[in-house]
Amino acid sequence: QGATVQKFAELLGVAPNDVIKRLFMLGQVLTLTQSMSDDLIELISDDMGRKVRVVNPEEEYAVVYNDSEEDLKPRPPVVTVMGHVDHGKTSLLDAIRETGVAEREAGGITQAIGASVVDLNGRQVTFIDTPGHEAFTAMRARGASITDVVVLVVAADDGVMPQTVEAINHAKAADVPIVVAVNKIDKPGATPDRVRQELTEYGIIPEEWGGKNMFVDVSAKKRLHIDDLLETILLQADVLELKANPNADASGYVIESKLDKGRGPVATVLVARGTLHPGDTVVAGTSYGRVRALIDPRGEHRDEAYPADPVEILGLNSVATAGDEFRVFEDERDARKLAEERALRKRLKQQEASHMSLDDLFNRIEEGKTTDLNLVVKADVDGSIEALRGAFDKMDQSEVKINIIHAAVGGITETDVTLAAASDAIIIGFNVRPMGKSKQMAEKEKVDIRLYRVIYQAIEDINAARVGLLSPDI
Ligand code: GDP
To answer: For the Tr-type G domain, which residue ranges apply (predicted)?
Structure first.
């Protein structure tokens, strides 16, 4: 499904009437709020001298990475640190970075680029700098499964906590092996064996007890056994026999991205396959460009980046999104085409995915897309909420069912907007205002916020919206 006539016109920056006219000449009678098919979008764009092609880029440019055994060479492991808050994830990453910095670089400044590289006796380990399972899963949700080993940090004085369990479940869901770092063993109350005992409940069983998880007792603060931990990670990696083909056009994932004042869009990518060079043409999600420079976590310019290497790419035309796939293209025009098509597709999708608003309630009902109207209600006094509930109870809800999913006294918060966005709800406020950044957030998330002074106006609006008679919101 494409976009409505109105949204299509908006996207192309043309007059909606012009689109309607051209559609009419093609024998298609459509109104502003009706949807155009992908075919129509292509036809009309073409008609208007725009080269817009709505294709699934993944299909047109699908690539099959078909590496033979001889092509595959051992590669370093990529590690993510997870664990309960305050159990020492950040401290451990700091300790690891310090330990793994080679002599000549000691005292040198490590650039924060989203990942670090540590060297143990000539072997590399790559660490993703954002600890925690939220980032890990967010990346995975976008298709970027880049972690080979999870280091689960559990404080020896605190034991297994809720986020420890979450981290275990996230790692398990991703089928990534867990190495346990029992941290804070320098503390007087530390009981590392109790941690081992507790973890057995979640299927994490030490090798020495006949299980398959490697454990290392460490102190991030006192820098105890950090070398052991790195060695253990490498042992775990050996079991996995991690390999990649370095002799191919590079591909991998964006792990961080930003707009740098002096340098323009900067994306940190993790190479998964092939070798990346300055001068390569790349597409990263909806961004593309020629690689102007490759910079490693030590701030050094590189002529090559190999599998499991994190590097900053300079030269993209826009800021990519973490989790986006990147790929080298032979032909710059293909790269540009793919990036632009993806951008258009994404915009169309966003438009389509915009959340429920009172204005399009009727359309949605007509199109059979909804039978529910979810509301988040915020008011200055409890009485207004109760009055509204009472009024809804009296309404005919045979066609549209009204659900108040959350109601409370107070201003509209960012949490309210998140809830509304996740539940496709409209926010109704009585004598309250959006607070903090909730207004901008609602605009970005396309969540409809309606503010009223009196109950009957809200009721009237909802009644009107149900039958498509709501006057435009000014
Ligand atoms: P995170 O929330 O998991 O990233 O935890 P942090 O690394 O921020 O550490 C939380 C607190 O625990 C900080 O006050 C650290 O100084 C402390 N901490 C971390 N590792 C150790 C350790 O090995 N021993 C002791 N005694 N304290 C630690």
So the answer is: 74-243
Adjacent-strand bridge partners of 150: 80, 178
Strands (DSSP E) along 51-105, which ranges?
A: 73-74, 78-83
89 pocket-lining for ligand 1 (C-beta < 6 Å): yes
Rounded Cα distance, 441 and 447, in Å: 8
Q: Is 89 annotated as a binding residue?
A: yes
CA of 201 to the centre of ligand 1 (A): 25
pLDDT at 104: 42
CA 339/CA 121 separation, integer angstroms: 41
Q: How far is CA 58 from the centre of its chain?
A: 19
CB atoms closer than 10 angstroms to residue 304: 14
pLDDT tens, position by position, 65-122:
657 778 889 999 999 999 999 999 999 999 998 875 544 444 445 567 889 999 988 9
Question: What amino acid occupies position 410?
Answer: G
Give 211's DSSP letter: S
Phi then psi for 436, rounded to 5 degrees? 55, -130
The C-alpha angle 341, 10, 260, rounded to 5 degrees, equals 60
DSSP state of 148: S
Ligand 1 centroid – CA 86 distance (Å): 6
Helical axes 414-423 vs 438-445, angle rounded to 10°? 20
* 114 HSE (CA, 13 A, CB side): 22
H helical segments located in 86-240: 89-99, 133-141, 162-173, 192-200, 226-240
232 lines ligand 1 (CB under 6 A): no
Tokens (6 digits) for 354: 């915009």
Q: Concatenate the DSSP letters of all residues of 356-425 into one string.
A: P-GGGHHHHHHTTS-SEEEEEEEESSHHHHHHHHHHHHHS--SSSEEEEEEEEES-B-HHHHHHHHHHTE
**Rounded (10°) angle between helices 382-394 and 455-466:** 30
φ and ψ at 326, to 5 degrees? -120, 155
Task: At 274, list the tokens.
Answer: 């092939």
Question: Is ipTM over 0.90?
Answer: yes
What is the rounded CA–CA span in Å between residue 445 and residue 353?
10
For 301, residues 6+ apart whose C-beta sits below 8 A from its C-beta are 293, 294, 295
Minimal CA–CA distance to 185: which of 143, 207, 215? 215
84 annotated ligand binder: yes
For atom 19 of ligand 1, the residue with the nearest CA is: 88
- What is the value of pTM for the model shown? 0.66
